[in-house]
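Researcher: Go.
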Amino acid sequence: MSSRTVIRGGLVITASDEMHADVLIEDGRIAALAASGTPAAEAFTAERAIDATGKYVIPGGVDAHTHMELPFGGTFASDTFETGTRAAAWGGTTTIVDFAVQSVGHTLREGLDAWHAKAEGNCAIDYAFHMIVSDVNDETLKEMDLLVEEGVTSFKQFMAYPGVFYSDDGQILRAMQRSADNGGLIMMHAENGIAIDVLVEQALARGETDPRYHGEVRKALLEAEATHRAIRLAQVAGAPLYVVHVSAMEAVAELARARDEGLNVFGETCPQYLFLSTDNLAEPDFEGAKYVCSTPLRPREHQAKLWQGLRTNDLQVVSTDHCPFCFVGQKELGRGDFSKIPNGLPGVENRMDLLHQAVVDGHISRRRWIEIACATPARMFGMYPKKGTIAPGADADVVIYDPHAEQVMSAQTHHMNVDYSAYEGRRTTGRVETVLSRGEPVITEREYTGHAGHGAYTPRSTCQYLT
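Model: Structure:
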């Protein structure tokens, strides 16, 4: 049975265009667009009509950096694939790319199979995987080729977390050389973890145990140094590089310099670095623990450089690094020792709204909002134009967005499975009203109408953003 939906009267916004258009959806895909009020649009017929007058019609968000059910620091991220993808839908995100984890001593395949088992049948929206490579050896390198062939085309390495995820420069270079051959994209957590561990040990020896010291020991210069080193290793390997969760102005400068040299080097930042700062880490009574993540929050003056990087395309993507841990019972593991606080913030539900607030505040344009939150992540990770745009043939992942509705972010009203909001009490303008995933309503006029198991695994092609 063919099913058709028409969305009438909204302002369709993509990364490249804005137009008042009606959108025809057929069998889960965009079938046609036509300027509203024209004979072509009036000829659209469908069983279901959505009135988007006065609203934006935008592509579903693509969050290319989430960690559902991630084991970390003796506990697990508090969102499951079921709760996390439902919350993502509430926030206007219709595709996530989560990180499957290779444990040291195990194969990539074992890690990927474990993440497929967690996600399959549980997701409200579509999902894909990156692969965390923790153990570079000859077998791992061969497996990278196989994963690229089956649609897992990006591999994350860590210059941080010695003894857990850490790779040394030789391991990084070998993985980069492999990705240069197989078309994969290396994603890098760029912090000098060896040096940071020395500073952590020294801080704790001085009795500096509060959450704010997490930010003080993970110095911006050590993020910049690792970013520079990763760029040069990628240059030696002849491989593209994507640096995750860039938080420091000095790291942005390294990316800008590499891009000015014509290198295929890309950067992602996250809402927490654009809207929060070390002021939050310094909140009294251990409240700062809520804001412990890595890379850490920086002093407020870094924000202007991050916004500038987003405007000049020295930063291309805003993802969340969604990795929630409850304050009670999880963040509290680090009372008396900031190094034991699980690293991560909740945010998968907040990203699209916070970035719309950035439009309202004049930081970015409407089309840039869609570019950094939908189109570029889809292109960067091989899902465009299936995802990230509204065009004939694309998946009908569509959000009806009310640009005038006001809301107050709060743990009392969010849908993430975590007991606090990193943006508690923040007033924003703009709110998701209706969300379609492949043409099926997941949020209908502010009611959840989706279900676990609707979300489909999405194999990816290689990076479509290379120069």
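Model: The chain has a mean pLDDT of 98.
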